[in-house]
Write a structure and sequence with these properties.
The chain is mainly alpha-helical. The protein contains eleven helices and two strands, in the order H-H-H-H-E-H-H-H-H-E-H-H-H. A two-stranded antiparallel sheet has the order 1-2. Helix 1 crosses helix 9 and helix 2 runs parallel beside helix 4.
Length: 296
């Protein structure tokens, strides 16, 4: 049981950067970016092919981050300069990245077994705690700068921030690029931890990222930036723990993982609405009872 819990925390930390990336587009920009499924694989593909060809794992990881930044910026350009619907822009880039990732790897799967990765001399959990905390603090600091505030305002009210002279197209491009850079970084780290990069490793990542963000907000709240980004990180860990416990149920199989993910997201989305509706009904009944008592 402790081994399963440790493995869940490890996976939660590896995917926490992806959750932070999804938080930027989903919550801050209110942008439905499906590029995530492709850029996650891009990170794994770049790091896999570079490490297997003898490059430094840290340099390879940095290159994966840059690859994600480029992929996100293209999605942003398609949406802002090409005037393509945001959802469609992400879908188009996700489809294009499948072929691009295959070109990068040259084959559907690249093995890293026996190669030196960033986890070769340091355990995964301690190193990932450092990386995730550093990424979270840097993101918090960025979102408090003038550019970060403009990014947040663009998601809240693009017309208002545009009236103040801010170019909302640029802030959208920066936000989507930063998001996919973090997603690609997560993919690069997952590939190094698992020992391989696969062309299908990014399928369903957007759902997992949404699950992490929504679960984190439901449990830990999101009253300010520091708390919201912390919720995304902790939500990623909680999600993996929930999945680990769910897979211990005898009649569930590993192939049911996507179904479990979908159910978790549905519950996380429906539960807050149901709680608000229940509270409103309770208040309405209480007021009705008070009015009835007063009439008597």
């Amino acid at each position: 049981m402790l081994i399963s819990l440790s493995g869940a925390v490890e996976l939660g930390l590896l995917y926490a950067l992806m959750a932070l990336g999804v938080y930027i587009t989903f919550r801050i920009l209110d942008f439905p970016d499906l590029t995530v499924d492709g850029s996650f694989t891009t990170g794994g593909a770049i790091v896999g092919i570079m490490i297997s060809n003898g490059y430094s794992p840290w340099l390879s990881t940095l290159a994966a981050l840059l690859g994600g930044l480029v992929a996100g910026s293209i999605t942003g350009l398609l949406h802002t300069k090409g005037r393509i619907n945001g959802l469609l822009s992400g879908i188009l880039m996700m489809i294009a990245l499948y072929s691009i990732n295959m070109r990068i790897m040259g084959r559907p799967n690249v093995s890293l077994l026996g190669d030196h990765t960033i986890f070769h001399t340091i355990d995964v959990i301690p190193l990932m705690v450092i990386i995730v905390v550093l990424a979270k603090l840097l993101l918090d600091a960025f979102l408090k700068t003038d550019l970060g505030l403009a990014l947040r305002a663009t998601g809240d009210n693009p017309r208002m921030i545009g009236s103040f002279g801010t170019n909302t197209d640029n802030t959208k491009i920066i936000g989507v690029s930063l998001s996919n850079g973090m997603v690609a970084l997560s993919g690069a780290l997952v590939a190094q931890q698992s020992g391989f990069a696969d062309i299908s490793m990014g399928i369903g990542m957007i759902v997992i990222g949404l699950a992490s963000v929504i679960i984190g907000e439901a449990i830990f709240g999101s009253m300010n930036v520091f708390r919201a980004t912390m919720a995304a990180v902790l939500g990623s860990i909680v999600y993996r723990i929930v999945v680990a416990f769910a897979l211990r149920v005898e009649w569930l199989k590993a192939s049911d993982l996507k179904l479990i993910t979908a159910v978790i997201v549905v519950v996380a989305l429906v539960l807050p609405s149901a709680q608000r509706a229940w509270k409103q009904n309770s208040v309405a009944r209480r007021r009705s009872a008070e009015l009835s008592g007063g009439d008597q």
